[in-house]
User: Fold this.
Amino acid sequence: MAGCGSGSSCKSGSCGSVDAKISQQDMAITSSLGRIKNKLLVMSGKGGVGKSTVSVNLALGLANRGYKVGLMDVDLHGPDICRMLNLTSRLADANVKKGGLLPPMLYGDNLKVISLEYMMENRDDPIIWRGPLKVQAIRQFIADLDWGDLDYLIIDAPPGTGDEPLSVAQNIKDAKAVVVTTPQEIALADVRKSLNFCKHVKMEVVGMVENMSGFVCPHCSNTVEIFKSGGGEKTAKDFGLNFLGKIPVDPKIVMGGDDGAPYLTSNAESPAITAFNHVIDNVEKVCGKQKPTLAMAGATSSSSCGCGGTCNPDTCDC
Assistant:
């Protein structure tokens, strides 16, 4: 538009309007993030290493321990979180609370979830977007949703070091990375790029997870190292990072993700569940074990509740 270049500051018209909206969204992002204690970006150097499985089970495990947790799926081209949790609700059918903030999906008492699929009419439609649209979607995920007070926000990113993880790094300044790899060298070569990405954008790394680290035979209990083992632990040591744990291949975890019934929510015992709990223990330790914001299905007192009594903050419209 004429008159809006050459370093001039446009105070009216479309330029001023866009600047005002961006500024308003920046303030909303700052306000929203100020209510979240720990922001963890789960990332990987390549696809197919089980990053979304780690994200889902990390979020579930923390929620099961009484923490208030958000799970944000920023893998915009291949979102899987809704299907792994069997969340079928749509934003079009949701009730928007007072103040205009959009409600995320709820999974149990302590987990809130957002994914682009939640906002789509047809979840099988492809997302054909360039960078700016993806950046704006991620900003809206933070600014326009009613996250409330959270102990942890788990952010599931697509593989690589492109728009999505970069947008998280730029908009969530205190986000920390959990880097997922499989043991074989081809995956580790890519994960080293992710670690150098974190160094470049000054993002602290909580630690590394070695997924698909051996297969425990359900019949003889012997471990078969299908993809080798120990590569993730060695890489963590080489970079001076925390090693959060090894997770073996378990067909029941795969089936649980496909069926929308995560295995970690069951009462079953298996080497994989033990390994996931060990990873969660280490995440708690690195982030600083803390008292959960609210107990399971907790209530808020009348001093902070407009309805004059106690209520569940996830359902009350006060």
Observations:
- The chain has nine helices and nine strands.
- The chain has one domain: 28-290.
- The longest helix spans residues 13-33.
